[in-house]
Amino acid sequence: MLTLFLFLYTTGMPGFEEFMCTNSADCVTDCSPMFGLDCEMCLTEKGNELARVSLVDSDGECVMDELVKPPNRIINYLTRFSGITAAMLKPVTTTLRDVQVKLRKLLPSDAVLVGHSINNDLLALKLIHPHVIDTSLLYRREFGQRFKLKVLAETVLGRQIQTEERMGHNPTEDAVAALELAQYFIKTGPPSFFFFFFFISMRHQYKNSTCHILVWTREIELVQKLLCLYVLRRFADVLHTRGRKVSYIGKRSDIALNLCNQQWYNTDKEVRHEECTLPPDLQLIKQFRLTRSPTKNIN
């Protein structure tokens, strides 16, 4: 996608005249600074256009928060989501080009932009930048399903954003949340943040239940035990330390396979017998996978 934009921009294709490239280096390092980015849009005659942009540095400090006057007539301010009103934009004279120039000056050549579905923000800014982190992709589930920034902030960071009491989103707050989600991912890695998916699913499962608090507490305690046992370790490694082998269900081919001494079973009964011999800590995984109904007695 970036290559396509660069081609269209450099060849002067119609519709891409307003796009601008940042002064970015060819590559980044572990020491390259990260910046959180978030934009709010209004609906105009030409579609969604930029109305506000916020940029925060790697410490979460706001370095830019600008209201932008769309060049086309506004049809809907989308106040419920953007927080933008007609009164806010009335005295504004800042244009998209002004914002592009300012961002180009603010961002160092090795800057890494972080955002949630950041492709939408860059399209609104009509900005081409090669080094980005999209937190909606970092924390996506199987089959490409993505979590909302609000859900990830509450579950991973323990912070509530985009609350109903506020009128619209705060782009600075959202930019900080996206930045910290990326920093958390880099620090902990996939093996440990995986367990937060269980937190999310449990949160929705018991959301409207009277036993929500007690069940939620028990699930947290269980996941904490799992994290202590298996964080930064592959399940196969844990089995190896316990003297166990990888098990597969199915029929084995007559062809000899030398794949780490697999242990094969032909019936479910053999597998269930093996599960009964698991040590107590490994049985936690089996216990955690059980689906419990919030309407049942949990005592």
UniProtKB/TrEMBL annotation:
Keyword Signal: yes
Domain Exonuclease: 33-191
Protein name, UniProt field: RNA exonuclease 5
Signal peptide span: 1-15
Source organism (scientific name): Sparus aurata
Keywords per UniProt: Exonuclease, Hydrolase, Nuclease, Signal
Top-rank lineage group of the source organism: Eukaryota
Gene field: REXO5
Keyword flag NADP: no
One Gene Ontology cellular component: nucleus
Matching SMART domains: EXOIII (SM00479)
MF annotations from Gene Ontology: exonuclease activity; nucleic acid binding
